[in-house]
Design brief:
single chain, five-stranded parallel β-sheet, 387 residues, alpha/beta
């Protein structure tokens, strides 16, 4: 079979939804995927209008995700979608993901993986049983300099890792926007749609995933304190915690949506016996490398920077000095997901350590993280173990 574009359907992401257009742009950037169908809203009229604006065949713009999966599965193999992108609020992750896999479709899904730990485990079990591919969009792991930091740790250049510090501050929920009809704030602060976690589910899971991804270590236990600062808010908007890792390293994680004036500056620092690395989102093309017995270095993304690892270069599109950012990091996850599907279709193998992406395993760990943070905080910071 010759290589072709991977045909994608989408659940969620109407014209009024910020993240839908981000996913569509990222999926299209490298030319490996094409959007062929979708149900973009629970409101059939909004779904239709979105499909029309995207020039889709109106026969393949559906009124519900159940209808889309059923109808697409009935189409000829050379026409129907290959995968489903799920970009809905958390409580509408599990149903579409499970039904898609039951009908043989691969899945890419916005984080967190699901509404609850039980749902996450069911999705993970279905992935293992079906052998299908599932990708989770922990976007920040897609940045070239994050890949470089990970490889520097993995190569042993920093020595045994001792300390991991990660933070994700935002300020946009410093006021009760959910009471003013602000859609993005509404579902994120609603336990019926978001799940147990507010800030920790929305951005804390990004920070936790980043800590494990760059350090190469799994968290083993944590001691947490979470709080809702805004009066009347039903879920947490701020969290801080101490971390322990499997090799004996320790760390600190801080996430907040009430850090007034902050944007989306996720930041990570990892220190070993010989040196450390530091990356932050507001200067995403730069990696600071500091040494115990030598001057500090500044690494920069860029296709001509031959000193970078093959993992960083494989996720770099532009020459040095040309900014690469959020869309490109998102696109790296979509590209790697698509390459894995193409390899499957053509009975080929792909280097998943080079073209990596977060999977259901990271999704389950993320949901376990949320549960354990809440458990620890409710017990006045008692240390609890992660699974």
């Amino acid at each position: 079979m010759s290589k072709r574009k991977i045909r994608m359907g989408m659940v969620g992401g109407s014209l009024e939804a910020f993240i839908g257009s981000v996913h569509r742009s990222a999926a299209a950037l490298d030319g490996h995927l094409e959007l062929v169908c979708g149900v973009f809203s629970s409101d059939p009229e909004k779904s239709r209008a979105t499909g029309e604006s995207l020039y889709l065949d109106q026969d393949r713009v559906y009124g519900s995700w159940q209808q889309m999966i059923e109808k697409e599965s009935e189409l000829p193999e050379d026409v129907r979608m290959d995968c489903v992108s799920i970009v809905t609020p958390n409580h509408v992750h599990h149903g579409p993901a499970m039904m898609a896999m039951e009908h043989g479709f691969h899945v890419i899904i916005d984080k967190p993986l699901s509404f609850s730990m039980q749902e996450a485990e069911e999705i993970s079990d279905k992935v293992n049983q079906s052998g299908l591919i599932l990708a989770l969009t922990h976007t920040y792991t897609g940045y070239p300099m994050v890949k470089e930091a990970r490889q520097m740790v993995k190569s042993g250049k920093l020595g045994k890792i001792r300390k991991v510090y990660v933070e994700y501050p935002q300020g946009w929920l410093s006021e009760a926007l959910e009471s003013e009809g602000f859609k993005q704030a509404g579902w994120r602060t609603d336990p019926e749609r978001s799940g147990k976690g507010g800030c920790i589910g929305d951005i804390g899971t990004h920070a936790a995933n980043m800590a494990e991804y760059v350090s190469g270590l799994k968290m083993t236990s944590l001691s947490a304190d979470i709080k809702s600062f805004v009066d009347g808010r039903r879920l947490d908007d701020d969290a801080g915690m101490l971390l322990r890792f499997e090799n004996g390293a320790t760390g600190v994680l801080f996430s907040s949506q009430v850090a007034a004036g902050e944007e989306n500056n996720i930041k990570i620092r990892v220190f070993g016996e010989k040196g450390g690395v530091e990356w932050n989102h507001c200067d995403c093309n730069t990696l600071q490398v500091k040494w115990l017995d030598a001057p500090a270095q500044t690494f920069r993304t860029g296709g001509m920077n031959a000193y970078l690892s093959e993992h960083a270069l494989a996720h770099t599109r532009l020459p040095a000095g040309h900014p690469e950012g959020y869309f490109e990091a998102f696109a790296n996850i979509y590209r790697n997901f698509a390459l894995s599907i193409q390899a499957r279709l053509n009975n080929e193998k792909i280097d998943n350590s080079l073209y990596d992406f977060p999977t259901a395993d990271e999704g389950v760990r993320g949901m376990d993280f949320v549960d354990k943070v809440i458990e620890s905080s409710q017990a006045d910071g008692k240390w609890v173990d992660l699974e």
